[in-house]
Structure formats: C-alpha cells, structure tokens
Amino acid sequence: MISKNQIKFVRQLEQKKYRKKEGLFVAEGPKVVGDLLRAGFKAHTIFATSEWESQGQTFQEVSDEELRRVSFLQHPQRVLALFFIPTESVPSVSSLSLALDDVQDPGNLGTIIRIADWFGIDTIYCSENTADAWSPKVVQATMGSIARVNIIYTDLQELISKAQVPVYGTLLDGQDIYTQELSKEGIIVMGNEGNGISAPIRKLINRRLLIPQFHEGPESLNVAIATAITCSEFRRRYPL
Fold first, then answer.
1. Does the pLDDT value for residue 84 go beyond 90?
2. What is the CATH number of the domain that holds 52?
3. Which backbone phi and psi does 208 adopt, to 5 degrees?
4. Are residues 119 and 54 in the same domain?
5. What count of other Cβ atoms lies within 10 Å of the Cβ of residue 159?
6. Its GO biological process terms (predicted)?
C-alpha cells in the first residue's frame, strides 16, 4: 500500500528544486535500479510489485495500479526506487573525460552518459546550466549507465583553465579528427545543441577538431551523435 503523501513526495522529485532539497532522485525498472544497487548507490525507498526480483533488498510492496500512480513512465516496470544523490567532489583531470557546455536536452544528456559508459570514460564535467543528470528523464535515458559514470557540476571555465591535459573541442574551423594527433588523456568539450561551445570555453580549447562531412545536406550533427563519433576515434587509437 502506498499513501497519498508518498505519491506526492515521489512526484515532486520530478522538479530539480525538490531533488536538491531532499537529495534524492528517482530510478525505475529492474535494469536501472539493479545497476544502481550493484554500483553501491544508497536507496532511500524502493516501491515494487511482487514480481520484482529483489535480490534480498528491502522494499515496499505495491500493486501494479499503485506503481502506475507513482511512476513517471508510460509503462511502469515492476520497481521504482528513490536513491540518494551522490556527493560531488571535483578531482584533478588525469584521464580522458567529457565536459558538457550547457547541453540542455535530457535525452541528449542521458545518451551522452550512456556513450561515456560504453567507451570507458568514467567522468563527465557539466556546466551549471547543463540539464540535471538526476532528473527522471535523464536517469531513464542512461539505461543504468549513470551508475558507472561520475557526473560533476562545476565551473567549466575554471576547471578547463587549470587543466594540465589537452582540451579538445569539435568546431567548424577544426582539423579533421581522423588525421589530427590525439592523446590518451584530455578533456573533450561538447557544446550546446543550438549554439555550440560558448565563446569563453572556446578560447580555452587548444586542440580544435572537425568531424568531416562526407555529403552535403545537414548543417550539423546532434550533440550526442557527435560525442559518440569523437569518443569512438579516441578509443580506436587508445583502447582501454
């Protein structure tokens, strides 16, 4: 049985101000919830139907109808959990990482987190105006990858200006990524969907890259697609 107050509490976590106030985020489905639990994320409350394989986890059993009332998904998937948002600390940049300069779309952010996980990039630095990684839409879009990638919100300009590694960015005046020299360590900056990399950050980029266009038509690539292409080329040259 789930109470009206519990439903209200969970639904409020769709908004960033309540996630920040409570220090909690929502995850749904056996895959995402399971990945977070295995990664050591601390659960606050778990609501699940009797069909969920709990692996010994304590949970509050609810009916399918009750789960639908609290879920953010069109088709709820047996379990919804509230997790504590991990405490952020900004480590020094010493390996290959991503920096997102005001990426706004939750779907793009979730996909980029999943891409980072695929290519073994364990840290993403986000500008303060980048979409919130702990929103339900982003968490679900990561398909569990958010459990394995560190998401750090920080002042990108300050971080990059102090970095002791190459700073890469995909720009129209860059050099062909397939012929340009790349390094094993560095920061790969990806920009806003509409405006690209902001002027202050662009000034700090010392390795300008271009993803070449092989056919006239589209004016640009989606930021998540561009991230995947860029990460793929780095990992092709420097496998883990």
1. yes
2. 3.30.1330.30
3. -90, 125
4. no
5. 20
6. methylation; RNA processing
pLDDT (tens digit, 9 = 90+) per residue, 117-148?
999 999 999 999 999 999 999 999 999 999 99
Torsion sign (Cα): 115, 119, 122, 126: negative
**For the segment 188-229, what is each residue's pLDDT rounded down to a tens digit?**
999 999 999 999 999 999 999 999 998 887 888 999 999 999
Q: Would residue 90 be called left, alpha or beta, if left means φ above 0 and alpha means ψ between -120 and 50 degrees? A: beta
Q: Which one-letter amino acid corresponds to residue 66? A: E
The H-assigned helical ranges of 180-219 are 199-202
Q: Reading across the β-sheet that carries 60-61, which strands appear in turn?
A: 24-28, 79-84, 43-48, 60-61
CA distance linking residue 134 with residue 146, whole number of Å: 9
Using CA atoms, how far residue 176 sits from 39, 173, 236, in Å, is 38, 9, 15
Q: What CATH number should be reported for the domain holding residue 205?
A: 3.40.1280.10
Q: Does the pLDDT at position 91 exceed 80? A: no
